[in-house]
Amino acid sequence: MNKDFWQNLKKPIIALAPMDGYTDSAFRQICKEVNPAIIVFTEFTSADGLSHGAKTLKEKIAFVPSEQPIIVQLFGKEPQKFVEAVKYCEAAGFAGIDINMGCPARKVIRSEHGLALRKDPETAFRIVEAVAKNTKLPVSVKTRLGWDGNLDLDSFAKGIENAGANLITIHARFFKEVRFGPIDYNPLYELKSKIKIPIIVNGGITSLTDGLEKIGNLDGLMIGRAALGNPWVFNLKPVTNFSEKIPVIKRHAAYMVKTKGAKAGILQMRKHLLDYVSAMPQAKNFRSQLARVNNLKEIDGVLAEIKTSLAAESA
Ligand SMILES: Cc1cc2nc3c(=O)[nH]c(=O)nc-3n(C[C@H](O)[C@H](O)[C@H](O)COP(=O)(O)O)c2cc1C
């Protein structure tokens, strides 16, 4: 991989957003099976922790070859910790390094990580510069419009570009809007002519068609929540038939068990199972069963029951 990776990538870039607790290897594999052209990111991972060689974090960002090109997302505030963490990521075979400068979670902000770096752009630029200088991999930044209504997006984007960033992804909301407040893509469209690096739009995209409309003059689109329970969002043609979804859901569960072990894999699969049926009022009666499954066999059993009940309803 080289620094031109993002520039040379076929446009529009279509990406699965990093989502802590969700976009682990199993879910990323499933999304890539739906659309092999998408780019996937790991869940955000502490640069400090990785720099100390934390085993749990190494496991957290583990991936399989079919996920390539996969980008690892790191958060932190100390340039040197990033440099050390990036050494590990390079050796592990990642295709790129993404730096989290957008997370608004209270814990993250209190530690001056994530979006807090938008209040301290000099540190943000120093991090990007240190990472860019010390890796062969492309470096990207994921951020938001800004901290509040004072739009410093242009100067921030120029700053990270000058520091060596090769791509910027922007969730088109401010800090205080967290994930549900008003969204404004216009500052992104206006930014496009002011920087050379590609720009990915993120936030509130509900389908591929919707994203291709919102992309405007930008280079790519990133989908987060709309992919939960719906990896088919990466297809132009939605999948609505539950029978068609079942083999994919089963494979997702099997990947979970394979990557996390039988106990943790199933426990963590439960929320995905609920996501898969969340838009189906007919499956309401099965939600409590899905929330309590203990193994792959039980998952198969409840999915089969849902299928039978849907067939009976439509008969
Ligand atoms: C459960 C959850 C976890 C998230 N974790 C991360 C993360 O680890 N790193 C990150 O940059 N953004 C994270 N985000 C933000 C998403 O990447 C994305 O920017 C946001 O959800 C807006 O996109 P959407 O409207 O398509 O979901 C997370 C969002 C959700 C809902």
UniProtKB/TrEMBL annotation:
Going by the entry's taxonomy, the superkingdom of the source organism is recorded as Bacteria
Tell me which residues bind FMN: Q73, K142, H171, N202, G203, G204, G224, R225
Q: Which UniProt keywords apply?
A: Flavoprotein, FMN, NADP, Nucleotide-binding, Oxidoreductase, RNA-binding, tRNA processing, tRNA-binding
Question: Matching InterPro entries, A to Z?
Answer: Aldolase_TIM, DUS-like_FMN-bd, DUS_fam, tRNA-dHydroUridine_Synthase_C
Q: What's the EC number here?
A: 1.3.1.-
Query: Which is one Pfam family of this protein?
Result: Dus
User: What residues make up the catalytic site?
Assistant: C103 (proton donor)
**Every DUS-like FMN-binding domain range:** 16-303
Q: Catalytic activity annotated for this protein?
A: a 5,6-dihydrouridine in tRNA + NADP(+) = a uridine in tRNA + NADPH + H(+); a 5,6-dihydrouridine in tRNA + NAD(+) = a uridine in tRNA + NADH + H(+)
- Please name the GO terms that the record assigns under molecular function: flavin adenine dinucleotide binding; tRNA binding; tRNA dihydrouridine synthase activity
Cofactor(s) of this protein: FMN
> What does the sequence similarity comment in the record state about its family?
Belongs to the dus family.
Q: What does the record give as the function of this protein?
A: Catalyzes the synthesis of 5,6-dihydrouridine (D), a modified base found in the D-loop of most tRNAs, via the reduction of the C5-C6 double bond in target uridines.
PANTHER family the record matches: DUS-LIKE FMN-BINDING DOMAIN-CONTAINING PROTEIN, TRNA-DIHYDROURIDINE SYNTHASE
What is the name listed in the Swiss-Prot or TrEMBL entry for this protein?
Answer: tRNA-dihydrouridine synthase
